[in-house]
Design brief:
heterodimer; A: alpha/beta; Purple Acid Phosphatase, chain A, domain 2; six-stranded mixed β-sheet; 9 helices; 20% strand; B: alpha+beta; four-stranded mixed β-sheet; hydrolase activity (chain B); signal (chain B)
Chain lengths: 312, 252
């Protein structure tokens, strides 16, 4: 009861952020029509092999993080919420001796155990080369989504997919991944013949696919591009401003601790939210969504590249 | 109630009209209870996950505590010529020569590239990780004589030693009387000098910009592994871990 009140209050408080205020009002006018579907998104980024909490001893993050604790926290949320998506934005590898000794095996096994639904690839996930990454993939019981790396000329051809659609009580959530340019960041021999493709073009393609044939109600981008750069370099904020039809960008790479998700207005006037939760599993990100059955999405309907259709 | 009925009727009409189609859902975000939930000390562990971690933890701990060798005296780091930088630069040169089957006349390691000294007494894998936490690879650069001159001028400004060479640093930061393998450095030599170095420094790290345009030859050996292997080799040969400041840089 209390939680329901809280959700209702926060719905009123944040409706404007979605850029769909008018539609939210329309939905509020028919509250008893059908119970909205709830979706809880939990997410991490840049966990950097931080299996155990940071060691005690006065460092900035001493005693924080730890995957056994995160697992318990996630289990608590799952016990309370009907629909949970658990996502990660890359750089799972590198940072503690666990990676040096086991090559990422334990990281993937624990993420699988926690029930991660998907991750994307960060630059450090290439630190043991394509072979090192490929060797660990059997330990990951979740897909890696990456739309802008072409692995077709590498031994990892066919191991990844650009996107995945998750269906929760009839609600279709499309998730795709974007990675940062590897040249200059990762040793040439570690990414081999992997081709880097334009993230903006790929994101537009993904939105068209997910909003179109895949008939998604929500589109999430797992990004390892980075939150914000003051130069020309593409970041999550620039991506959100250039690509219509994104609802949420879960970011990484810049290890940014965000107090709250940032809404960025897209070309269609619809605001995408960006969130990033630091690094090393110090925090677990959480966003709760409600899906009200309703009319066509505002803004999106008018964008030619993002046709909105009913789903079958 | 009435509204509810109307909505249902409308929805049914839509379904009837469009066959299998349904209306799309619209997402509305809530930021509750927090969008960034700390995983702090008060959060209990999942015991099953903790149990999964334990054997890995025990292996890492055992490995990190594993003694590779013994240092009678601590190998310290400092600017200028230091025992630690001499130790690492020398083993870089030796390992690169072994891997590439050729003589490597020079080797470079900066003070900043080494993150901690080796303590007196037992030297553990953990000590080597603290010394070299980075995944740097040992590489070889084939540097023309002009670049080697730049290297020594760079070295002279910070009185840094170069493994395989001796020189005199002038007060205004120039390198004089450079000797490589005991022979005078020939600034007009056409044949490049092979330099063992980390891929980080080879790529222009620590302001060694003059190396940036030289394509490195790979050894495939991590610098940390090279250090650990060398200490093990010393131990297997019954030798202690030692290095001295031996006057590779003379200050004029």
């Amino acid at each position: 009861m209390q939680r329901r009140d809280f959700l209702r209050n926060s719905l009123l408080g944040t409706a404007g952020l979605t850029g769909l205020g008018a539609l939210a009002n329309a939905a509020a006018a028919a509250p008893a029509a059908k119970a909205p579907v709830k979706l809880t998104i939990l997410h991490t980024n840049d966990m950097h092999s931080r299996i155990e909490p940071f060691p005690e001893g006065g460092g900035q993050w001493a005693g924080l993080g730890g995957m056994a604790r995160r697992a318990a926290l996630i289990a608590d949320v799952r016990a309370q919420e009907p629909n949970v998506l658990l996502l990660d934005s890359g750089d799972i590898f590198q940072g503690t001796p666990y990676f040096n000794f086991f090559g990422g095996e334990l990281e993937y096994k624990l993420m699988t155990r926690m029930g991660y639904d998907a991750s994307t690839l960060g630059n450090h996930d290439f630190d043991n080369g394509l072979d090192g990454l490929g060797r660990q993939l059997p330990n990951a019981g979740f897909p890696f989504l990456i739309a802008n790396y072409d692995f077709s000329k590498t031994p990892l051809a066919g191991k990844f997919q650009p996107y995945k659609v998750f269906v929760k009580q009839g609600v279709r959530v499309g998730v795709f991944g974007l990675g940062i340019e590897l040249a200059g960041l990762v040793g040439d021999k570690n990414f081999g013949q992997t081709l880097y493709l334009d993230p903006v073009a790929k994101a537009k393609e993904m939105v068209a696919q997910l909003r179109g044939p895949e008939k998604c109600d929500m589109v999430i981008c797992l990004s390892h591009l980075g939150y914000k750069y003051d130069n020309e370099k593409l970041d999550d904020r620039k991506l959100a401003a250039q690509v219509a039809g994104l609802d949420l960008i879960l970011g990484g790479h810049t290890h940014t601790f965000m107090d709250a998700p940032e809404p960025i207005q897209g070309p269609d006037g619809h605001a995408a939210l960006i969130n990033q939760v630091g690094w090393s599993g110090i925090n677990l990100g959480r966003l709760d969504y409600e899906f009200a059955p309703g009319a066509k999405r505002g803004g999106l309907a008018s964008a030619a590249v993002v046709p909105v259709r009913g789903a079958c | 109630m009435l509204r509810s009925f109307r909505f249902t009727a409308a929805a049914l009409a839509l379904v009837a009209a469009a066959g299998c189609q349904r209306g799309p859902y619209r997402p509305t975000a809530h930021f509750a209870p927090a969008t960034s939930q700390p995983v702090g000390k008060t959060q209990a562990e999942d015991p099953a996950v903790a149990a999964l971690i334990r054997p890995y933890h025990d292996k890492v701990t055992a490995e990190m505590q594993g003694v590779l060798g013994t240092a009678p005296v601590a190998l310290t780091k400092k600017t200028g010529e230091s025992p630690l930088a001499n130790f690492v630069a020398d083993l870089q040169r030796q390992r690169a020569a072994e891997v590439l089957h050729e003589a490597i006349p020079l080797s470079v390691m900066t003070n900043g590239g080494l993150r901690a000294g080796l303590p007196a007494g037992p030297v553990t894998m953990g000590n080597v990780f603290e010394l070299m936490p980075f995944e740097n690879e040992l590489v070889v650069l084939d540097a023309p004589a002009a670049t080697v001159q730049q290297l020594f001028d760079f070295a002279a400004r910070v009185k840094m030693a170069v493994s395989g060479a001796t020189y005199t640093a002038t007060p205004d930061g120039h390198a004089l009387d450079i000797r490589i393998g005991g022979l005078p450095f020939d600034a007009a030599q056409a044949k490049p000098y092979a330099i063992a170095i980390s891929d980080y420094l080879a790529g222009g790290g620590d302001n060694m910009v003059f190396f940036k345009n030289i394509a490195p030859r790979h050894t495939g050996v991590l610098l940390r592994s090279a250090i650990a292997d060398h200490i093990r080799d010393l131990t297997n040969a019954g030798q202690p871990v030692t290095a001295q400041v031996e006057g590779r840089v003379k200050v004029n």
